[in-house]
Amino acid sequence: MHAARKLAEIAFKAVQTETDSRQLADLLRLTNVVETPSPGNTGFWANDFEQTLDQLAEERRKIEILQKSSKTGFWQLDVLTGEKTYHSFLEKLGFPEKDIEKLNSNIKAHLMDPDDIERSDKQLQEFIKGEIPEYDCELRIRHKNGYWNKVRETAETVEYDEHGNVISVLGVIQGINELSRLKERGQRWTKLFSSAKWGIAMEAVGGKSINIGMSNPAFQKIFGYTPIELKELSFFNLFAPEIRLKIEKDINENQSRIFQMDTESTCIRKDGLKFPALINLNIEKDKFNQVVFSSINVIDITDLKQLQQELMNKSLYDPLVKKVFSRYHMEEQFGIIKNSRHFPASILQMDLDNFKSVNDQLGHAKGDEVLIIFGSILRSVFREEDCVCRSGGDEFTILLPDVDEETAKEYAERIHGNIALYNQQDPDVKISVSIGLATAKESSEWDNALYHSADFNMYEDKKSKNPSVA
C-alpha cells in the first residue's frame, strides 16, 4: 500500500519535473511493477515508460527554450483555495528569483493595477461558472523598475470534481506592450499623416528615380493631383522649371548617404500655377548611390506671403496717403543714404499752410482728403521709387540723394507749379505749402542737424507768407 501511495504521489508530480519522472521509473522497477508483459496486465512496462520519459524531457526542454525566448508566462489557479501561481513570467518583469515566491503569494497587492483586479476577477469567475465561453482579459502589471506593462491573460479549465465543478484553471499571460506601442504609434502616425495641414509624400524606391508613392490629402489638394496621378510623377515635377534642374544637380552631386534640403522654393500645380512653398526634402541612398527612400513635406505659403506683403506695405507706405512712404521708411532710407556715396544729397521739408483751419472748419474728413490730394501732387513731380514721405500730420519730407542745392530748388518750384495748376481747377479747398531745404555735400553732414535745418527753413518760408507765424 505504501508503495502504491508513493507511486500515485510521484506520478501526480511527474508532469511537473523531470526528476520526479525519473523517480517514478525507478520506483516501478523497485516494486516489480510488470517488468515484462503478462496476459491481462494493463500497466506500463518500465522500459517503455523510461523511453516515454526521455521523449517528454526533450519536449519539455524545447518548451522551456521557447518560453524563455518569448514574453509568455503561465499561471495556475486552484479554485478551491483561490491560490493563483505564476510561472516563468515574473522573471521577465525584472524580479530576481528570491523575490518571486513572496510576490506569487500576493501578486495582486504587489503588482496589479487596482482598477484591473476587480474587472479580471469578475471575468474569471464568470468563466469558471460557465457564464461566459472564454476568459480573455487585458490588464496592467508593474515592472520592477516601476513602469506598467500591458499583458493579456487567457485561460482554460483543466480539472473538475466529481460533480463537474471546475477546481483547476491553467492560464497564459503574454506581454502586449511592444505590440500595443507599435499599434498605437501606427495609429498616431496614420492620423497625423491623414489630418496634417501640410503636404506629405514619400516612397521607398530603387535606382536613381525619386517617384511619389504615398501622399496625404493635403499634398493632393496643394498640387491639384489625384493619388493615382501623383504616382506617375517624380518629386522634381513639383518644382518650377527654373528651379528643378538646380535641385536635381544638388541631389546627384551629393556624395553622402543622406540628403536633406530645407528651403523656400517655387512649386507648380497641375494647372501650371506657380506658388511659394516651404520644402523639406529627405533622400536616403545606399552605398551604390541608389535611392532607397525619399520623403517630402510641403507647406503652401501663398497666404503668408500675401500677409507679409500687406504688413510690409503698411510699414512702407503711409496708411492714409497711400501713394507716399511712411515715416518709418523715411528713417530707414535716411540711414541708407548716409552710408552711401550718393552725395551731394538734399532734403525738402514741407508743411501745408492753414491746415488746422481746414480740420476745424470743414472737419477731419475734408482734411484727410486734402492730404491725399497733396500726396498725389507730390507723386506727379517725383518718380514712384523716390523717397516721398509723410513725416507726420500735415508735414511731408522728401529725401533726394545725388541732388545738389540748385536741383533741390528746381524740385521745390515744380511742386509749387503743380499746386498752382490744381488750384486753377477751383477746388473746395485750395492748397498752399511752405518748403524748406537743406543740402549735405558729404556723408558727415547728413545727420539730424541737416534735417532740423530743412525744418527751420520751412518755418522761415511760412513766416514770410504770414508774419504772425511764431
> Count of DSSP E strands?
14
Could you say which overall geometry the principal axes of the C-alpha atoms support? elongated
Largest sheet, order of strands side by side?
2-1-5-4-3
CATH superfamily of the largest domain: Reverse transcriptase/Diguanylate cyclase domain
Work out the helix count. Answer: 16
The top level CATH class name of the largest domain: Alpha Beta
Measured between the Cα atoms of the first and last residue, the distance is: 137 Å
Sketch the topology as an H/E string, one letter per element: HHHEEHHHEEEHEEHHHEEEHHEHHEEHEH
**Tell me about the biggest sheet?**
5 strands, antiparallel
Rg, alpha carbons: 46 Å
What portion of residues is helical? 40-55%
Percent range for β-strand residues? 15-25%
Q: What is the arithmetic mean of pLDDT?
A: 82
Q: Structurally, how many domains make up the residues?
A: 4
Class of secondary structure makeup: alpha+beta
